[in-house]
Amino acid sequence: MDQEFASTLLENTVAQLASLPGIGRKTALRLALHILRQDEPAAIALGQSIIDLRTGVRYCSECHNISENPVCPVCSNPGRDQSTICVVENVKDVMSIENTRQYNGLYHVLGGVISPMDGIGPDQLQIASLVERVRNRNISEVILALSATMEGETTDFYIYRQLGTYPVKITQLARGVSVGNEIEYTDEVTLGRSLLNRTLFADSFHK
User: Fold this and answer.
1) 101-152: per-residue pLDDT in tens?
2) Average of pLDDT values for 78-107?
């Protein structure tokens, strides 16, 4: 049975919080009551930070990572290796790789992986813009750093085929990342070693 609320305002807040991933109605109620117990300035600051996040954050026009400017700090940093692109599924993967401190190149965020079961095809992902970057920039290496799942490997192979006519080395993470694992859940040491020991993608066809 649904929880009965004495306040419509409380009920609305709980409903909004419960719509977040991993937040059930009981947790949402606990969070809403916590916010209600806070000083008014603290609660207002929380609300304003959410508004600022939604209105102020955009996607980088180059790599599609989140940014507060048209071009993200990674792409605009002259100290980064501009000849290497690491292809990842989402923004969380960028954060995971950056935390290893083992990579100094650029990124390309696809926004997902090819998954016919979920109705996600190549056209729904940022693959065409990746090909365009390789075609128009002096890119010497593309690192495929997608999760070692069936969908991730399908996407890897599709990208490999799309880039096959360009003079660029295509590599993948060493198999320190276990099959079936997602990048964001791989520990930093293992992920860092997988980056450093990356292998040619084409070699995987001959194993």
Assistant:
1) 989 999 999 999 999 999 999 999 999 999 999 999 999 999 999 988 899 9
2) 95
Q: What is the CATH number of the domain that holds 116?
A: 3.40.1360.10
Average pLDDT over residues 31-60: 95
Q: What token pair was written down for 143?
A: 């690192």
Task: Say how far apart CA 69 and CA 59 lie, in whole Å.
Answer: 8
- Which among 17, 46, 16 is positioned nearest to 31, based on CA atoms? 17
Is 25 domain-assigned? yes
Rounded to whole angstroms, the Cα distance separating 146 from 148 reads 6
Write b or e for each residue in 92-128: b if 16 or more Cβ atoms lie within 10 A of its Cβ, otherwise e: ebbebbeebeebebbbbbbebbbbeeeebeeeebbbe
User: Are 21 and 123 contained in the same domain?
Assistant: no
Tally of domains within the chain: 2
DSSP helix/strand/coil, 142: strand
Q: Which residues share a beta bridge with 17?
A: none
User: Distance between CA 128 and CA 159 in Å, rounded?
Assistant: 9
In a domain, 92, yes or no: yes
Residue 183: which of 174, 175, 192, 191 has the closest Cα?
A: 191
Classified as helix, coil or strand, 135 is helix
Cβ neighbours, 10 Å, residue 185: 12
Tokens standing for residue 6: 């004495």
Q: pLDDT, tens digit, for every residue of 156-177? A: 999 999 999 999 999 998 865 4
> Which residue has 């995987």 as its token pair?
204
Q: Assess if residue 110 is contained within a domain.
A: yes
